[in-house]
Amino acid sequence: MANIMVLGAGGFGISLAVTLNKYGHNVCMWSAVPSEIEEIRLHGENRKLLPGIAVDFSIELTTAIEKAKDCELIIFAVASKFVREVALKVKPYVTRDTILVNVAKGFEESTMLHLSQVIQSELPNNDVVVLSGPSHAEEIARGVPTTIVAACKNRASAQYVQDVMMNTNLRVYVNDDILGVELGGALKNIIAVCAGICDGMNLGDNTKAALMTRGLAEIARLGTAMGAQSETFTGLTGVGDLIVTCMSMHSRNRRCGIFIGQGLSSEDAIARVGMTVEGCAATKVAYQLSKKYNVDMPIVAAIYSVLYENKDIQEAVRDLMGRPKRHESEHIWMSEKSKPLVN
Q: Which homologous superfamily does the CATH classification assign to the domain defined by 3-176?
């Protein structure tokens, strides 16, 4: 039995708190927003972000982050833009033995760091485990069989998280490729926005399947250029997370894309979703990373032009379909790119 602090009382934070509490752990859930805590205390659930999921009274609810001082595990379940701020807040109450777990998927926009790097930069003496994979909060909280990955440079810490979190409905694998796991989780949100746009435009199954497949190729291309292992992107945190996020209406990224495909601006689409849409912010970072690492990412470039340069969606689709011919195999295409031109 572990003492666990969940930082964040949104959908994913609640789903983990409820699940860990159910399997006998002592769970405290914190929010920086007093109204979120009061909402749960009053109604026994977060009616906006996770309606119908009861939060047991044995889960301690608090706005006092110092409650983290006696916890073996601290789980970051806040939006990417708040990760550094929350890490700074909790820092005085973290001991050297505390294992930090991040479940947010995205980047810090100002630095282009992935989120474990953000946490590590503020808490350098602690292991950070990334928890990722095809896992909607709505389904974890209901006990739907789910498989996820715990990734860490220190395998012992990943295995500890595996031991604590694994149960009859939640299967946890360990992985040493923390970079690949985290990139897969962040970049698939971009492709999910694009998948939603396909749905909003009624482009059909052929288009969406092509988008997901070539989107995965772009994710793997950037990931390996940055030093991740290629096989990670064929696993749960690559293709697995991509499938669930592109196909499910639980996905806020896909829903945002649907609204854009139906003609709304990105700002209005995000407002309609009413929650953080990590894929839109991640698009800006991925576009910059593709330039930094000289990686060809035409889908990312297309959605960047739609979101940030007001490009017409139909024109973006035509441009993607009209790109120069190439080989599907990455290594053959790369070798052909390097060949000298023959007059």
A: NAD(P)-binding Rossmann-like Domain (3.40.50.720)
SS3 74: strand
Q: Which residue has the tokens 């602090």?
A: 5
Confidence at 341, pLDDT banded by 50, 70, 90:
very low
CB–CB of 216/239 below 8 Å? yes
CATH superfamily of 185-325: N-(1-d-carboxylethyl)-l-norvaline Dehydrogenase; domain 2 (1.10.1040.10)
So what's the pLDDT on residue 342? 46
Reported as a single tens digit per residue, the pLDDT across 112-125 is 999 999 999 999 99
Cα angle 301, 307, 313 (rounded to 5 degrees) comes to 80
Q: Where are the domains of the chain?
A: 3-176, 185-325
Tokens for 185, please give them: 């989780």
| Cα–Cα dist 228/231, whole Å | 9
Q: Would you place residue 326 in the very low, low, confident or very high pLDDT band (cuts 50, 70, 90)?
A: confident
* Distance in angstroms (rounded) separating the CA atoms of residues 4 and 337: 51
CB 123 within 8 A of CB 91: yes
pTM tops 0.90: yes
Report the pLDDT value the prediction gives residue 343, as an integer from 0 to 100.
42
Task: Give yes or no on whether 3-176 and 185-325 have one common fold.
Answer: no
Distance CA 211, CA 262 (A): 18
Identify the H or E element spanning 173: strand 170-175
Residue numbers annotated as active site: 188
CA atoms within 13 A on the CB side of 204: 2
- Residues near 37 by beta carbon (within 8 Å), at least 6 away in sequence: 9, 31, 61, 62, 63
* Cα–chain center distance at 216: 15
Separation between Cα atoms, residue 243 and residue 135, nearest integer Å: 11
Average pLDDT over residues 234-240: 96
In this prediction, residue 337 carries a pLDDT of 65
What pLDDT shows up at residue 330?
A: 72
For 171-204, write each residue's pLDDT tens digit.
Answer: 999 999 999 999 999 999 999 999 999 999 999 9
